From TrEMBL:
The lineage of its organism: Eukaryota, Viridiplantae, Streptophyta, Embryophyta, Tracheophyta. Coiled coil: none annotated. One of its GO terms (molecular function) is oxidoreductase activity, acting on paired donors, with incorporation or reduction of molecular oxygen. Belongs to the cytochrome P450 family. It comes from the Eukaryota. The chain crosses the membrane at residues 7-31. It comes from Dillenia turbinata. This is Cytochrome P450. The keyword Metal-binding applies.
Length: 357
């Protein structure tokens, strides 16, 4: 009897929550006609969920572009509104939209974090998103400008060679995207934290390499934090990874104090030895969160780019043959075991300037 009463109470509570959510959605959607005069055309979909399910289902089917194409054809080729992941969203399309976004940074356009990111990284977002963005812009140029990237060419080449030896079985079918993600994760760990081999380091990266997938899946998911949901798994995964990163941060502080490494050894050391405009150092937790953010930010984007390169090389044999010939010429001029240098990249004319027919 008591169990039935509890079930009835929970059901009534869920119905009440759904009714209130639906009512508020209608109020915000239709309550103020004047407030919506300047909004772009489009629809917001269902309360809370919006059009997220349709967006994700098209992505799972491998046709995410259809979500955009259908709405640009129906509403506008320039901009339309929708609701994704619990957030009202304006989607800018075409060259004009991209130019507007990328030419108005910190002017008409500022950084913004969805609710999922706020829940996964609560400590890093105590200040405004604009302040956080400016802090990272000041920290990273010394490591990511073209002059600094030159010294990473050999490192990335050595990681790539080992990656091909260990992960690519050319006798069977190769699924590129997971392998590309593994490679970019290895490169990021090496460049950001100087971890030599993430896949064979049981004391460090191996402990957070597994939950990293759950974390990435939760960043782009419905903002529902209940047991078993992608967001809940992502929050738990972030806590696990953060603990391991904190241990690495503490050890690096000891190494810096003992002059075993320099402040410019990698991004981790640079963050620990750099002060803000008030002369304050970042806390260990803040450094761990920023390293984690960098790992996430550069992971899927670089992996997707590598995957598309492999895809187009497979689909365009005339391009593939030009690139292969060029790579053979560069390899022929090198001694056995010699790594790529910055000068070698300047010789890769076909790799960057091919004409797609």
């Amino acid at each position: 009897m008591q169990g039935d009463m509890e079930l009835l109470f929970i059901s009534a509570l869920l119905l009440l929550t759904l009714f209130v959510s639906f009512f508020l959605h209608l109020v915000f959607l239709y309550g103020s006609t004047a407030a919506h005069h300047n909004l772009p055309p489009g629809k917001l979909g269902f309360p809370i969920v919006g059009e997220t399910l349709e967006f994700l289902s098209m992505g799972c089917r491998g046709t995410p572009e259809k979500f955009i194409e259908e709405r640009t054809a129906k509403y506008s080729t320039e901009v339309f509104k929708t609701s994704l992941l619990g957030e009202t969203t304006a989607v800018l399309c075409g060259a004009a939209g991209n130019k507007f976004l990328f030419s108005n940074g910190n002017k008409l356009v500022t950084s913004w974090w969805p609710r999922n990111v706020e829940k996964i990284f609560p400590t890093s977002l105590q200040t405004s998103t604009k302040e956080e963005s400016m802090k990272m812009r000041k920290l990273l140029p010394g490591f990511l400008k073209p002059e600094a990237l030159q010294k990473y060419v050999g490192v990335m080449d050595s990681i790539a060679k080992k990656h091909f030896e260990d992960g690519w079985d050319l006798k069977s079918e190769v699924v590129v995207f997971p392998l590309a993600k593994r490679y970019t994760f290895m490169v990021a760990c090496r460049l950001f934290m100087s971890i030599e081999d993430p896949n064979h380091d049981p004391n460090h990266v191996a402990k957070f390499a597994d939950p990293f997938h759950d974390l990435l899946a939760g960043v782009i998911s419905l903002p529902i934090n209940l047991p078993g949901t992608p967001l809940n798994k992502a929050i738990k995964a972030a806590e696990t990874i953060r603990k391991e990163l904190l241990a690495m941060v503490k050890q690096r502080k000891i190494d810096l104090a003992e002059n075993k490494v320099s402040s410019m050894h990698d991004i981790l050391s640079h963050m620990l030895t750099t002060t803000d405009e008030n002369g304050k150092y970042m806390t260990e937790l803040d450094v761990a969160d920023k390293i984690l953010g960098l790992l996430i930010g550069g992971h899927d984007t670089a992996s997707a780019a590598i995957t598309f390169i492999v895809k187009y090389l497979a689909e365009l044999p005339h391009v593939y043959n030009q690139v292969l010939k060029e790579q053979i010429e560069i390899a022929t001029g090198k001694k056995r075991g010699e790594l790529l240098r910055w000068d070698d990249l300047q010789k890769m004319k076909h790799s960057w300037n091919v004409q797609v027919k």
